[in-house]
Structure formats: structure tokens, C-alpha cells
Write a structure and sequence with these properties.
The chain has one domain. 72% of the residues lie in helices and 7% in strands. The chain contains six helices and three strands; from the N terminus they run αβααββααα. It has a three-stranded antiparallel beta sheet. Helix 2 runs antiparallel to helix 6, helix 3 packs parallel to helix 6 and helix 4 packs antiparallel against helix 6. The protein is globular, with a radius of gyration of 19 Å.
Length: 180
Amino acid sequence: MPAHLTQYLVMLPLLAWVVWRRVSRQFGRQPIQRKRMIFRIVLFSAIGGALALSGFHRIELAEGLAGGVLSGGALGLLGLRLTRFEVDPLKGDCYVPHPWIGALLTVLLLGRLAWRLLVLLPQMQHAPAAAGAPVMATMGYTASPLTMLVIGLLVGYYIVYFSGLLIHHRRFQQSRLTAV
């Protein structure tokens, strides 16, 4: 195996762990953690903003990202309508996300990344690392509007979904206080 591919073998366990965490958070009762949600909103906004800068080089990348963000925002609103809010005696205020939307997003992301990897794998095996630059950067891994669309879908979904969860949680707390 070429030496420049060993870094990807090291990253596979980390990727598997991240995917497992992502899938486990799409099912069942999840505690509302305001600080983490705010951090995720800021993080996804920063990722979306940084990726939008790629539109300065190729407009079709910005179009793919924008289409994904808009579609993801609409999907986030649908996800909020289908989310249930509960109070758990141990976890406190919780939400139960709609499992099919989370599963759809996970399958789309993993499917697109797997397809992109399969397309680039023959090129990576035969290309020497150019002056210490990562092979994926020289291959233009994000140079696909469809990949940007899927990433934009995730960015838009999570910004809208987490923002909506925070707004609804605030209303949920206020309604409980007025009921007491």
C-alpha cells in the first residue's frame, strides 16, 4: 500500500466512531443541551461560510451549497414539526427527533462520501503526494457541486433544527412556569 494512503487507514476508526455517534443521536430521547446546540449552530454557520467562499472560484459550487442550505432549512422545519418534546425524570427536558429524517441525512452523507471516495480512489493510488500536500486536496475532493449540495443540506438542516429546538425549548420552559 502506498505510504500516502496510510493516513486514511488511521482515520477509519475515528470516522466509524463519528458515524456511530451521529446515528445514535438520531434515535430516542435526547437531552436538550443549550450550550452544545449554540456551539453547533456557530460551527455549522462557520463551515457554511467557509465553504461559500469556494463560490469565488467556481460558481457551480456556490450554487450547489446554496441549494443544499435552502433544502436543508426546509427539511429542518419539517424535522421540528415532527419532533416530540418530553420531560425525563433523569435527563430533564428532552426531545425525540424524527428517526427517518436523521436516517435520510446520514445515508445521503455516507453515500455521497463513499461514491466520491470510490471515484477518487484509483487516482489516489497512482498519484504521488505532491510536495507534502494532502492527496485529497490536490484531487479537488470538494470540487463537486453534488457534494457541496449534500454538505449544504446538512449545514442548513442543523442550523435551522438546532435554532428551532432552542426556541421551542424556551417556550416549553415558559409554558411550564405559567402552568405552575
